[in-house]
Each structure stands twice: as structure tokens, then as C-alpha cells.
Sequence to fold (556 residues):
Amino acid sequence: MVDFSIIIGGKAGFGIDRASVIIGRLFNQLGYRIYIYRDYPSLIRGGHTFSVIRVSSDRIAAHRSKIDFLLALNQDTLDLHRDKLKDGCFFLYDPELVKVPGQACGVGVAIGKILKEENAPEIMRNTCIIGALCKAVGIDAKTMEDVLRKEIPRELELNLKVASRGFGESRELTRVEPLVRERLPVVSGNEAIGLGLVKGGLNFYVAYPMTPSSPILHFLAEKATEFGIKVIHPESEIAVILMALGFAYMGKKTAVGTSGGGFCLMTEGLSFAGMAELPVVIVMGQRPGPSTGLPTYSSQTELHFVLNAGQGEFPRFVAAPGDAEEAYYWSAAAMNIAWKYQIPSFILSDKNLAEGIFNFDINSVEPIKEENPLLWDKTSPYKRYLNTESGVSPLAFPPEQGAPIKVNSYEHDESGITTEEPAMAKTMTEKRLRKEKYLSGELEGYKTINVYGNKDSSTAILCWGSNKGVCVEAAKNTDLKVIQPVVLWPFPADRFRDELKGVKTLISVEDNATGQLARLVKAFGFDVDEQILKYDGRPFSVDGLEEELKKWTRKT
Fold:
């Protein structure tokens, strides 16, 4: 198996993120599978930012602690990451900006000199070092040019010239041989979510920018004409959720995107959706809190917030995908479920999934198509909240002749007329909650829990969301079982119980300090024996998690 990693680093605002994607696409062009993790401070300019590009002959969705190449665009990058190099000399740098302590080492490329001679802007430092990397790993100049032509929309010829100069001043350190295999598209988790929403019939996407969900807004806005959708950026998160509910009232399939801080402002609107039975999809991109917390880093801290948000009792659907394919599938499914049951649906994401870069294999995704909601038959008198067996009432949308369409945040009768009569309040509460029973039954036909690794192992890892990738790979190397619930509400307790058969030791792996999934499964009578928790905003590395798992397995 071929497996190596690259870090490129520099100051925030100098195009490190874009450069890492181009590097990933270079190796993707050679037939390799990639995963990219981005690390950056909450600064527009300044501060240290870097990306880890992992390249493998196998599918991957996590990074490793040690790296094979270091591309240092400033001194901080070399100082902070040189100790991660497997070979201490496999790094590229600009001698004008980076001083190498001790014995001369690495490959110096006169990036500053090249930019001056070509009259190129500072941001093209990354283009120059990409050219140097291509030479260092044996990527030919034509492949480099082909990828750059696809990836660089502006000042292409100057970028090509700068990359070629960097290529010429570098030297080959090793050779990465191309693989003869299918090349898979490269997408971010956010892009996969956006594509899934469109697959589910999205009409409107409404969002106020908030990391790590902002890129969905940017992606869908850029593609709005192509996808035939409308994308709106209102003045606040309160406006976002209320506008989305207005669109739902008009029969338009709508999704919103936010993070924990923005969702705080949406919770009253969420309760409105619960009472008025208005469907909406909410993409919740988790990041560390409380309050502003670590705004550009990741966590899994909003599970119980999402499960319990809003006053009163009403059904909801919550899915936490673990990779690009799951993000695509469950975003489409969430739209279908929201409209079929007229409830809020959540896609619980996090920075590691949302901004991670993955290969995407559409052929591995189970078929899913847009479903139509239950509509009024236009013969019987219309009652917006008709009390049906399933709790789901037929929909009509204004303007509809002969159908007074009343939605109400106050308790109401079947016609939507406000009431405080106790028997009707009880009837309507039971009607709304009855939907969850029917939704739970339908979800038995979905793959709500995934199992990987050694399925006969008596020790299992319990994980959710973006920890899927690191847990699956670590379990493969430690011969353990992985249980990954994707649907977290309504929680598939019976299926979870089936997957625990033969398991004597259950170890939860989460990016939070309190074991939120462990707490959830305990509410259904399942005990977790050990918790491996990380809450510094950074993801688990494969080798780091393996060491933690080995500590526990040695105890047993």
C-alpha cells in the first residue's frame, strides 16, 4: 500500500487552502485517493495556517501524525512541523524567508527571487512551491500543467510560468508512480451536503455565514443557476429560519445552514416549525463552544443541543453522516423525511467533515430520489391539521382556491384555529408525536447503523460523524469492530442492540468532553465501558487513536 502525507503551511491569507486542494488533485490525477485536513486560525491575515494532504492507494478519510514532505512558505511552518517528518530532510523552502538551523538540509527554492523576476504577486508563492513539489515527487511537467489549467481561473499563464520556474529549481527526492485506475471526483463535505440537498429537491437555501457551514452558502450561490435554485443571505439567523418557514408554507423545499451560535438564535423558529408542522432541513456545522469558542476548529458538542432544542415536545429527525457519500445520501434523505412527515430534519456535521476534502464515489451511494409530500385531494374540505392515523396531514399551498391554509404557532384545532380547549390540545399533541412512531418504522428500511472492521470481535468502537474515517482505519489495524450510528434520532435502539451481540467491551470515541453519544445510548439502556475523548478542536490522527485503543486493549 502506498501511503504518504504532505503538509503545506504559511500565513493566513496566502492561499494555503487552495494550494492544498491543487496538490490533492495532482495526486488524484495519478489515480491515488486523497484526504485533506485544513487547520487555520480565526484571522483573515496573519497567524499560522496549514493543510495536511494524505495520499494513499486505498480510500482514506483521516490524517496521520507523521508526514513525508513539508512545504514551508514561512519560518513558522518549518519550526512547528519539522519534527513530524519521517525523513528530516524532505522539505522545500524559500531560503530568503526560512532559515534552516544546523546542517544544510531540504531543498531551497528561490521563490521570492522568482516572483520578483516574473513580476508575480506574493500569493503565487504557493504556485511556485507546488511546481517544486511536482519535481520532488516525480510528477511530470505536463501533468502539473494539465491540473493547473483546470484549477486556476485567473492569471493562468503567469501561474504556469511561476510553477515551471519552481519545477526547474527543485530536484527529485522520490518518485510516486501513477496508478492505472478510475479517478474519482474530489469534493468537500460541505459540497456533498449541498449536492445531496439538491438531489432531495431543494428550492431555496437560506443562510447567514458561520464557520464551518459557510462554504455551503458559497457553493450553492455559485451553482444556483445550474441547479435551478435560489440562494439567500438574510441579515441574521433569526431571519434565516423564519424566511425558511415562510418558503415551506408556500410549498418550497428549503434548507438552512448554521453553527451552534447561530442555531441558538433559531430555536424559537424551530419550535414554531414543530407546532406549525412546517418542514425544514437544518445543517448544523459543529465547532467548539461555549460562546465563540474556537470558531475555526471542530467538535461534536451539539448532539444533545439538537436533540432537545426548542420549547415543548415535537418530533424531529437527526442524521450525522461520516464521509462525503453519507453526507450526500443523508442530506437528500433528510429533505424527503422533512416533507413526508412535516417536521424539522437535521444534518449534524462538524468542521472535520464539512471542510475535509474527500474522494467521492457516487456509485457506492444507494439510490435515492426526491419524494413528493402528501397533498390535499381537492375534494374534501381542507383542514391543514387533519387528524390522521399517521399524524401527517395533507398539504395545500397558497393560493389554492377553496382551501383556507392556516398555520399557527399557538395550539390549534384541525383547521388551524387557535384553541385552549384541553381535549383538543391533547389530541393535537398526540397527533404531532405520532409521526415519530411511523418515521421509526420507515427508518427500519434504511441503513441507520454501519458496522466495519472485525465483526466478530468482542471489543467494539462506538463512533459518530466525522470520526468514522479514523475509527474504521484504526480498527482495521487493531482488529476491532466499529459501530457507527448514522441516524441519531429517532434512535434505532433495536438495531443497535443487534449489533452489540457478542460485544463485551464497548469503547466510545468522540470529539467532546462529556461523551454525548455515550450518554444518548445509556438512555436506551446501553453502557459504554471506556471513553476516548478529544476536545482541543483538533481531530484524532489514525496513529494517535491506535495508541489509545492499544492502551485499553492491553488492560483487558
Q: What stands out?
A: Residues 260 and 548 are 29 Å apart (CA to CA). The longest strand covers residues 3-11. The first helix runs from residue 16 to 29.
